[in-house]
Amino acid sequence: MPTCDNLQVTTSSGDLALQVTGSGPTIVLLHANPGSSKDFDGVSDQLAAEHRVVAVDWPEYGLSPAPALDSFRGAMTYRDVLVELLDELTDGHGWGPFVLVGSSVGGFAALSAAAARPDLVAGLVLVAPGGFTAQNPLTRLACRSLGRSSIARFTAKPLARLYLRCRNETTRRTLAEAGSIATNPARREVYCAIWHSFAEPEHDLRDLAPPPVPSLLTWGRFDPVLPAFTDGRRAAKALDLQLHRYPTGHEPYAELPDRWIGDVKPFLAAIPAAGGRRLPAGNDGGG
Fold this sequence. Notes:
This protein is an alpha/beta fold.
């Protein structure tokens, strides 16, 4: 098992805790809401066999402290601090450019970083990225309702039970993280702010240009939060990417890690020779 080092990077939204394993080209893992870097435990060792893996804990999750809540803007804060983090890892350690593995809100941040600073990004592995849900009164109401503290206290863990279809050690730990929303007021504020941000116009990526770097789009076939049939297809069309689907819920890397990594490893191996070419659109890969 690769040795793990802990780092802390200061951003405009507070400190971010990082777990660093392996060596080689650098992969940055960006988890969903709620969650932590531990959500990638099922795949991180395999990734670290040939890469340096930087697993990020978003503010108030895992080992990262709470952000300054008066200026915390949910997904948009994640988007902004990710660029700060990549700049710091480049300037302070010389690790870039990076392959970003982003799940849900982490995928939104990864896509935004690639669009804003393509010099920092070598490739993208996207897992049900946020930003492709049609904005209408119903979706905005759902996001704002789930972003109310009085509701989130009772719904965060049941919702996680619904969208994590497969059970194993990793997903059980993720469910425990979701359960902490009920008992940790600071974490609940962060969780709610992120849900609120999903209804903001800035979170809409449907008109985003296709990524300027090699990209892989993965999705759980039975994801009830961001359904593959609607959001997945919209993302594939907007980003001009092939959609790789798995018989899982929201987090295929945690639910069926061997199957997901089976698609990711050859994609990563091809990046140095990819010459900036993207995977073609139009096919449904995966299971």
